[in-house]
Design goal:
alpha/beta, Rossmann fold, 11 strands, binds glycinamide ribonucleotide
Amino acid sequence: MACRIVVLISGSGTNLQALIDDLAPRSEHGQIVAVISNKADAFGLQRAQAAGIPTRALSHRDYPDRALFDQALCNVIDEFAPDLVLLAGFMRILTADFVRHFHGRLLNIHPSLLPKYKGLHTHARALEAGDREHGSTVHFVTEELDGGPLIVSARVSINATDTEASLAAKVQQGEHRLYPLAMNWFIQGRLRLQDNRACLDGQPIPEQGLDLEDCETDKREHAHVLQQDQ
Ligand code: GAR
């Protein structure tokens, strides 16, 4: 049976698009069953509709506090009975109750090489600090903001001419390879949260997470060996 995936967004949804495109040829393995936004005008909702995916908009402004909004959001997500919930540019801090409810099946993509630069304005902070590299990270979500077990990161180098916008564009290119990879690991049953550690193929992932380049090299070498065997 296909892994049922709900994606939460607040904005443009370029990561959502990368996930949709990646799943399109193999919907028997994984299917995005709903896209939910806290902003009714998020462009990502149009991307979902164009792909024939059900959408919901639930504004946090219609709820008196965070706990009630998160409870309502939780109920809407549960209607779709997801195996996996992906935060893809969902710009809300989630309550502990929400995070606990989806324990082990909630992933986030964050635009920095975590644990560096949790929170907002990550590109500006990396530039200001004079960093030579930056990137994005996929991690399991726990109660600590941007602090859950790291899974995999995509690095980009920072050049002297980079601006916040050019850096954001480079980071997003990496994100569009990174999130489908992590999603597929989960779909294939290879990625799990065990005793609060991210595990791939039953082995704990190192605390700093894996590196996308190494994972893609491994994949290419594996494909090469398979070809040679044929
Ligand atoms: C992405 O860069 C994602 O890493 C970031 O929002 C962007 C959404 O872009 N997420 C966060 O900052 C979460 N703290 P998108 O809407 O084009 O996918």
